[in-house]
């Protein structure tokens, strides 16, 4: 009888221990059956000072931050030597989305106008509305990775070219056909802008590609330089003729 009682007591103690979760750490756990959480449809809430700070509900996580000292959330990576290609924070969308879904969005209390939004389609947006339904003045944003409303101020911008053919040095080739000045004057009189340079209305409607515009402006400078060289050569010839005529007087 004593043996039966002892075995029963040990079984109850083992069962009680199996149902507990030690605050000083646990060993021999099975993630499939041992976890902190709920098995029903109730939320999992974490509190400090009897106030809710963190909640997991319906597959979402909510942080309730209320502090005037320090940052709300600190993510500190204390790894001395991380492997190349790793990240401190990685946000991953497992399933490709056909619609416009955000991976990370930062906003003020007016959530309809986020400050920053990284989209699942690889776009980075700043200063547009919540659902990316109105990219102000951006008629072809699908061709670009980054859109910033209200402008960008920076100390340096570098534009890369795929090949030397993208630059305008071809103007100085011997076979380049330079538009005569009288034809250039005719074009300007009729169109009120230089050839190949967009008009003011076109700029307002379509904007300006800085790379393309810089190449075009360089092209016009080089064409102007060729015209100046040609005019200078003509003036030098005229000066020689005038000097020769004065000698023959």
Q: What report would you give on this structure?
A:
The protein has 249 residues and is of the alpha+beta class. Among the domains are: 37-67, no CATH class; 102-148, no CATH class; 164-247, no CATH class. The protein is built from 4 helices and 7 strands, in the order αβββββββααα. The strands form 2 sheets. The chain has a 4-stranded mixed beta sheet with strand order 4-5-6-7, with no helix packed on it. β2 and β3 form a beta hairpin. The longest helix is centred in the C-terminal third of the chain and has 38 residues, at 210-247. It is elongated. 1% of the residues are buried. Mean pLDDT is 85; it is low at 1-17.
Task: Quickly give the structural class.
Answer: alpha+beta
Work out the strand percent: 5-15%
**H and E order:** HEEEEEEEHHH
Low-confidence stretches: 1-17
Order of strands across the widest beta sheet? 4-5-6-7
Helix content, binned percent: 25-40%
Largest β sheet strand count, sense and barrel closure: 4 strands, mixed
The overall strand count is 7
Distance between the termini: 150 Å
Question: Can you lay out the helices and strands and say which pair or pack?
Answer:
Blueprint: H1 2-19, E1 44-48, E2 51-57, E3 60-63, E4 102-106, E5 116-119, E6 124-126, E7 146-148, H2 181-191, H3 200-206, H4 210-247
Parallel strand pairs: 6-7
Antiparallel strand pairs: 1-2, 2-3, 4-5, 5-6
